[in-house]
Amino acid sequence: MGRDIQTALSETKRMFEIITAPEVSLETRKKIARETTENFANNINKGFLEYRKSVTESGEFAVTEWSGQGSILKDALDREFIDALGGFGIYSPGIRHPKIVAAVKAQLDRSPQYSQEMLDPLRAHLMKVLSMLTPGEIQYGFFINSGTEAVEGAMKLAKLYTGKSGFISMLKSFHGKTLGALSLMGKSVFRKPLLPLLEGVRHVPFGDYKAVEDALKAAQQVGDGIAAVVAEPIQGEAGAIVPPDDFWPNIRKICDRYGVLLIADEVQTGFGRTGKIFGVDHWDVAPDIMCLGKALGGGVMPMSAFISTPKIWKCMEPNPFIHTSTTGGNPLACAAALAHINVMLEEDLPGQAAEKGAYILSKLEELKSNYPKILAFTHGKGLLIGMEFFSDEIGYKVASGLFSRRVLTAGTLNNSKNIRIEPALNVSYEIINEILNRLEDTFKSIN
Ligand SMILES: Cc1ncc(COP(=O)(O)O)c(C=O)c1O
Predict the structure, then answer these.
(1) 237 close to ligand 1 (CB < 6 Angstrom)
(2) Which pLDDT value is given to residue 280?
(3) Residue 265 Cβ contacting ligand 1 at under 6 Å
């Protein structure tokens, strides 16, 4: 575009006025909606718009997000959408939970970032509180801003502690897209264009503990050192795939037997999403390292962490700067996380997720038998629910049919055969029934 200081000045002034205005007229919002599409095409990625267009049909891809509360999002034209996607799992307490917003606003007036030189009180306090919720001996942690960074940190910690560099990861897994996390990823569509990635990562079928043991045995036989086995308690991005009940208890035992660490990537399953505080709680397993993210910041601030036991964390003590982040665990993010944990416990979000998830799954089973050519399988626990369709084409039609009925769901980017339902954990039964009605209406229209 070329340098244009004057326009940059006037554009920032205009947006500042819009952001800070108590009311923005419909005319202005319409203009913003038009500009947003243009800006995405010119400054973000045209492919993104093309993808939206095909999923959402008839120009609806230009929908521009404006505001939200609880389980309802409004676009710039004041149209309401039901949020059954939860921002891929960040909105567990709902959009803009008043308590979490209040905590962040108040902290903003005290100190938004830390000096980097003094000790900030919220970060350590948050970790102390987290250690009261986590399984096993977990007590230490490092805060960053995204789930991917949590996975990167967990990988570094496992390498530092064990002195080994290999990992066993799961097919179809999702751990983020930076080069380290991508090495663990179980999908070729994201990995293949970036090969070679980290050496020494072996992938085995998710849910098959014998395959984990075989991979460790093979690594031992050829002299490859394995630092850790990494898995999501329930695979989220793959479509809410629940492993057999013997999987997690057995990989725990196998890791101990082979002297390998066990990393649970709870970025999506943590904080009540699956009906327990953490996904591994379904099987009473204590991992050595956990990755947290998404909902940790209460849907208000980006926030993530990798956390572990005192025994393992000791390897970070000689040089505490071995892993750093300038903005990770900033006071706003910590205030959000502390308020979110309070909301999660006070509102019993895990309990709500368990009960409401069971209700939705039972209703989906009914839909499955009433529409046997559309819905093939249902998966999930709590409010991490996957609908598996007979083909990509059907899934695509369901995703676009739901969008045109103003329900947001997570059809996975490269696989619309699986669509996730991941609403706020305190979503009302009234809204749940509305989602189910609109889903059935969509099924009817494509039957
Ligand atoms: C299990 C898991 N780990 C890691 C990530 C990456 O998190 P982020 O997108 O915040 O970097 C995701 C994101 O979907 C995830 O589901």
Answers:
(1) yes
(2) 98
(3) yes
Centre of ligand 1 from the C-alpha of residue 77, in Å: 31
Task: Assign residue 409 a region (left: φ > 0; alpha: ψ between -120 and 50; beta: otherwise).
Answer: beta
- According to CATH, the topology of domain 98-346 is Aspartate Aminotransferase; domain 2 (3.40.640)
Superfamily of domain 18-93+349-446: Aspartate Aminotransferase, domain 1 (3.90.1150.10)
pLDDT of residue 414: 55
For residue 357, give both structure tokens.
Answer: 């998830």
Q: Using an 8 Å Cβ cutoff, are 420 and 386 in contact? A: yes
* Angle 302-235-163 from CA coordinates, rounded to 5°: 75
Cα(366) to ligand 1 centroid in Å equals 31
Report angle CA 294, 146, 201 to the nearest 5 degrees.
105
Query: Could you tell me what percent of the chain has a pLDDT over 90?
Result: 89
Atom of ligand 1 nearest to the CA of 265: 1
Beta bridge partner(s), residue 193:
none
C-alpha triplet 434, 438, 444: angle, nearest 5°: 145
Report the C-alpha gap between 380 and 182 in whole angstroms.
24
The pLDDT tens digits of the residues spanning 395-415 come to 988 988 998 899 998 765 556
Q: Tell me, what's the pLDDT at 60?
A: 54
For the chain, what are the domain ranges?
18-93+349-446, 98-346
Per-residue pLDDT at 410: 74
> 319 C-alpha to center of ligand 1: Å?
28
Nearest-5° angle of CA 176, CA 180, CA 182? 40
Tell me the angle at which helices 209-222 and 247-258 cross, rounded to the nearest 10 degrees: 20
Please name every residue paired with 408 in a beta bridge, in sequence order, or none if there are none: 83
The alpha carbon of 412 and the centre of ligand 1 are apart by a number of angstroms equal to: 13
345-362: average pLDDT: 98
How far apart are the CA of 238 and the centre of ligand 1, in A?
12
Q: Is the CB of 169 under 6 A from ligand 1?
A: no
Round to whole Å and give the CA distance between 279 and 232: 8
Q: Tell me if the pTM is above 0.90.
A: yes
CB atoms within 10 A of CB 97: 24
Ligand 1 atom with least separation from CA of 149? 11
